[in-house]
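Self-study notes.
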Amino acid sequence: MQESALSMKNRVVLMPTYNEADSIVGVITELSTLDVDIIVIDDNSPDGTSEIVKKMRFDNVSVIDHGSKKGIGPAYISGFRVALNKGYSKIATMDADGSHQVLDLQRMFIESDSYEVVMGARWIEGGSVSNWKVHRILISRFGTWFAGRCLALPYKDLTGGLRIYDAKAISQINLETISSNGYCFQIEMIRVISVIKASIKEIPIHFIERRNGVSKMSKVIVLEAFARVSIWGLQRIFRHNADKLHYVK
């Protein structure tokens, strides 16, 4: 496969973790074949995920330890800050449970030379999902449809976590204003990226439901997303410039 023109070591992959002891070693080992740096952001996992990663002693892997369970949004924000401080040019986000495929990420890195944001998309031609129950498919597809309508975002998969952001785009954002804790964070990030008018490309990916551990999806996470997207939709209608004033440096 053709490699990107930019050295892969200028790129970092952020992986939030909470109780991923069963999968994290395999994911990091496979991901390291891409010759990228990896930052694991652990939410004080009771199963010792953080310690397992540290014992691997991979030169390309570092760990950020949160003292409590803060959620996927704050985990990514911590990772973004460290990545920007270290001067990476491309910042990828990826699940730590093996659901995202390294070959898909490799293809996305190639596309990231031409776009400021590359999104892995399950619901476009060429994309797919394995081992998901019907209700999970409905939640994801409805979430994307609902957010797209409320926020005028023309994308087919707003809830997926496999993405690559250009560091220059992230550096334009007031990261402290990103407030989502759960998977609504993925929607909020594209909302913000659209405000700064960054170029976005969706790439088809194959998503495989985790084989080990327990899904973090819950009713609370779904309700948070519905409530926040509804509020953002109203703000878009009645406070036209509010997003730019709120999010952009």
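Second protein, same conventions, sequence then structure:
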Amino acid sequence: MRVQYYHNPACSKSRQGLATLQARGIEVELVSYLQQPPSVEELDRLLQRLGMDDPRQLMRQQEAEFKELGLAEASLSRAHLLAAMVAHPRLIERPIVVCGEQALVARPSERLAPWLDALFGASAA
């Protein structure tokens, strides 16, 4: 089993999720999205895998950048919102776990175990 994990090591929830994956013996490819932000295309694929239509669903709307950039404005295009996430990766909600075409924002961290059970079976515990 291998997953991609969009990780912020400074975030306690992100560290908790990583510990859960490691405890289950799941091979993890860490994605340091703050140092190397995903491209617009990668973000678009993530949104599709997450079943999210509006990029704001994947944004940390309490971040200062969200307010400063006026990203709540309804008239902003999808392209504008995705570009803002690339330019300001702190806006991207975390942690995100990707396995094949499935993805999950593992926040709160209690969402991760049932998702893993559904994907890999309870034997992955």
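Instructor comment on the second fold: The domain at 2-120 is CATH 3.40.30.10 (Glutaredoxin).
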